[in-house]
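Hi L.,

You mentioned the student needs an example of a multi-chain input paired with its predicted structure. This one should do, with 453 residues in total across all chains.
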Amino acid sequence: MATDVVTMDKIVALCKRRGIIFPSSEIYGGIGSSYDYGHYGVLLKNNVKAQWWHSLLQERDDVVALDSAIIQHPRTWEASGHVAGFTDPLIDCRFCKRRFSADKLDQSECGHKPSVHPGEAPQCDLTDSRNFNLMFETTVGPVKEDGSTVFLRPETAQGIFLNFKHYLQFARKKPPFGIAQVGKSFRNEITPGNFVFRTREFEQMELEFFVPPEDAPKWHEHWLKTRFDWYVRLGLRQDHLRLRPHEQAELAHYAVATSDVEYLFPMGWSELEGIANRGDYDLSRHAKYSGEKLDYVDTANGRRYTPFVIEPSAGADRATLAFLVDAYDEDEIDGETRVVLRLHPQIAPVKVAVLPLIKKAGQPELAREIQHSLREDMQVEYDEGGAIGRRYRRQDEIGTPWAVTVDHQSMEDHTVTIRDRDSLAQDRVQIDSLRDELRRRLAAPWHSPKLED
Ligand code: ATP
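Structure written out for the whole complex:
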């Protein structure tokens, strides 16, 4: 494995410098662990989500889509077990007034003496551990009264179970089939951190795949492989990815089996996505709490059963962070360090930049014409400000795979150069064939040039 120059500090600095992701509410001094996505961040995360949808909705025909409400009936969270059990053990220090997750004390810094863990400095005065529910509570309607308390969903999954019956009816689906959803989830995390790895509001990309109980292990394997391969196809280095099965003691109360897709982040191997066999826990619980029948009757043989659920549950922000970390690189051009995001072209926020070499002699007009001819097919950016080297560097920093340069020769023979972000090769092509050439490059298989280091 080549030595990686990436650190989380460099990612945070680049994201801020280029307006990809930055701290929220900065004019008021910021609010801890809350981040806003700027222009390139929106494009990047949208590409991640679009690839996820594409792999489920377009590349297969056994998954359908849903966009359910964030605020659901409060009974949802009683049935799901979140009211009773979605807690983290919390410890306060009476001396430094800091708050720690009791099961992460060995990874936390003492608020008074950061070189030791909480409880290890003489002044530390820790409380006993108390359970703290991670759901955000709010009130519906103008008055806070009995029955008006609701929760912001801590996961998108439950909205899918609540709608299972609808999908049997109007989508005319039968197991094995899945329902997929992308949306915001909220958790009042005690120790958020590592940039957008753990925040209190985040986006999830969840699939609940319903199968006959006896087929659940086979489908679990299928989704482990399918989801792992998705990250690899989009360019994450395979030596930075692994599947880790949960130990029996680590399994959530509902899970028959779970494996995590983990990525080697700068802070170490960490969960990117959890892929669980949830058995029939969710449908059975909602059937019990709602009084509705949530099972499936196979009309071919009259068999009635509650499907088992395989759940690949990914985080859009965590995946975006993994793509950024995996792509970050530095090299040297003309004696200067270049920061470059070696993103898979399909994930890159901007696919091509069109740059006139100089701001006169008809070059800007031709470059604009080219930009307009490409924008139907891909995200394209026009930039005429500053020296060409600096403009290339700006595009490298946001991971733009190709830069098209219009120069004096373009005006004579109707050609342009395509500069490749990674190889730095410059190929001269006819403007007439530019669109096809870029489309060809965009569709071609890709792997990280960092693997060749
Ligand atoms: P962790 O152990 O890291 O808290 P989890 O096992 O509780 O995660 P799940 O409930 O399985 O997470 O959620 C599925 C996915 O949602 C995670 O793999 C992650 O990508 C994302 N996710 C969960 N919590 C957060 C968070 N606080 N911030 C950002 N993403 C999150």
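You could point out the following to them. Residues 203 and 316 are 5 Å apart (CA to CA). The pocket of adenosine-5'-triphosphate is lined by residues 155, 187, 189, 198-199, 202, 204, 271-274, 313-315, 317-318 (CB under 6 Å).

Best wishes,
N.
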